[in-house]
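Let's practice the habit of predicting before peeking. Look at the sequence and jot down your guess about where helices and strands might fall. Then scroll down.
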Amino acid sequence: MKLTPASRPCEHAAVADRPKALVTAPFRGEGMTTLQSLADVVYDPWIEQRPLRIYDGEKLAARVAAEGADILVVESDFVRGPVFDLPLRVIGSCRGDPTNVDVAAATKAGIPVLRAPGRNADAVAEMTIALLFAVNRYLIPADKDVRAGQIYAEGLIPYQRYRAWQLAGRTAGVVGLGAVGRATKWRLEGLGMRVISYDPYNPEATHSLDDLLEEADVVSMHAMVTDETRGMIGKNEFARMKPGTIYVNSARAMLHDTDALTEALASGHLGGAGLDHFEGENLPTDHPLCSMTNVVLTPHIGGATYDTEANHSKMIADDIDRLLRGERPLHIVNPEVLPG
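Done guessing? Here is the structure:
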C-alpha cells in the first residue's frame, strides 16, 4: 500500500525537512548507514554507559525534547507517559516483542511502533547448542580439573569420569517453533540428531507435548512466555521425560518450575540441564543448582552478539525508510495508526 505525503502518520507533528533521530539502542552496520542517510542521528546507546543507564518515561521524554528528535529508537529504555506528548514520527523498538513500549498509548497518540522480530534467532540457537555440548560433555567440570591440576582426581582417569553418549543419533525435542526454535532445529539436525517438535500454533510441529517429552533425549525450550506457557514444564512433565534426559532452556525461566527442575536433577532422573535465564535475572549463589556439576548456568547472554545488533538495526532502519517514503513498514506493531 502506498501512502501519500499528506496521509503519513507523522502529519500531526511540525517537523523540519530532515528528521532527527535519537538512538539509545546499540545500532551498527548497514542499518546505521541507512538511518544516517535519512536523518541526523544522535547516537547514545544504553549498553555503553558505565554505570548502566536505562531511561524511564520522564527522563526519556526530557532527552528527546532536548535533542529536538522526531524519531526515537530504543532497546531497553521505557517508552511511557510524557514521551507520547512529543511530536514523534515513529518509535523503533529493537526487540522482537516491544514490551518496553506502551503500545496502546503510542497508538492513541497516532505514533507507529516498529519492532525487530527474529533479530537474535541465530545467536540464541548457537547458545542453545553451546549449552547442550557443555552439559553433555561435562566441559565445565573438566575445565576446572585441568586448571586445578586434578586430571587424575579420585584415582580415576578423565575417560572414566566423563564418558557420555554422543548426540548424533539421539532425539531432540524442540518446544516452540518460532524463529529461535526453527534456527535451533536445523542446527540439531546438522549434528545428526532426529528432531521432533511441539508448537500448537505451527502446523509443521510433529508431536504433542506429552509425546515429545516421553520420546526426546534432549528437551530444548523456545516458547514465548504467555499465560498459556508459563510454568508449562513442571513436576509431572519432568517425570514424563526419559531417565537421563538433558533439559535446555535458552528462552525464559518462567517456562518451567525451577523447584521441580531442581528436584528432577537432584534425584538423578534428569541427566543434566543448561539454563540461560532466571526469574528476576538472578540465581542466588546458595541455590542447589549452583552446586550441581551436571548443570551449566549462564546469565541471559544468548542474544548477546554484535550480529543481533546489526540485524535489528537493519530491520528498524529499513522500516523507518519505508515509513518516510510513504510506504507500509514490514514490522509495525500498530498498523491501525496508518491510513486505510
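How did you do? The first strand starts at residue 20 and ends at 23.
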